[in-house]
Amino acid sequence: MSSTREKGLIVSFGEMLIDFVPTESGVSLAESPGFLKAPGGAPANVAIAVTRLGGRSAFVGKLGGDEFGHMLAGILRENGVDDTGVSFDKGARTALAFVTLRSDGEREFMFYRNPSADMLLRPDELNLELIRSAKVFHYGSISLITEPCRSAHLKAMEVAKEAGALLSYDPNLREPLWPSPEEARKQIMSVWDKAEIIKVSDVELEFLTENKTIDDESAMSLWHPNLKLLLVTLGEDGCRYYTKKFHGAVQTFNVNAVDTTGAGDSFVGAFLSKIVDDQSVLEEEKKLRKVLRFANACGAITTTKKGAIPALPSDSEALSFIKDNQRRKENSFRVGYVSCLHSSL
Asked: Where does the record place the Carbohydrate kinase PfkB domain (predicted)?
């Protein structure tokens, strides 16, 4: 078995913040009796998802020089994430997000970041040595919204690509943060043709294509020549995958969803952790389907608890979950088969 130190490094770039999750689902922010403080931010969630599964990751971003910022940096370290790419801003606060949980576990966000520290990361503050050591460089689109962070984002992408990293992009649309839907589409698509792996949700697919039909034709309208894999996550309906040679769908697992926050990040972290040292997965459909089943399991597990980072599964938890699910399916099949036999006698 190879040690964690020998595994390829996944560097995740962008925002880390505090999510305030209501203690009661299905009520408005004003009606919520209280909130649970939970660390979050999609790129940070991905970095921790990777280490939780036994991989190597680093986070690059900026936090406020306040108690929340230092707490978040501590959480990265506690979870085995390299935080040497984290800088602190003495004049700006760490971003906060209040999350409304609907009764079905889906959520809406209200952000406090005007400006928050993550928006103020400058290109000259980047740890270029760390970025150059990445085998996979992962990012979202929130860091493209304003300067100077946008320039830092573009610089980091350029440096990672020149050093040979695989570029992974999850737009992670948060529409309230953008000046307008048109500006969001423009900026999200401005770096589209650089990425070799892109993951979008069904909601993001609909937003980017301005087409309410979620099908293969709609997904393939986002294809570009440099792309190796396009993933579309469909919530309880699993995911679809598209490569130059093949495409298909992988079902997810049935769970009682409590909070979907971080499920997509868990999916991405699980997927990247499996391909960072074996990119043949992108070219062999059987391997890809197995990895996506594992990623679906990690995403499903994450929805069963409140908050993103606390809910991210370990490798053993994910494998046990898959085995238990398979065992239940086999038992259900046996029961159904026996019932058929009895009814035919």
From this structure: 9-313
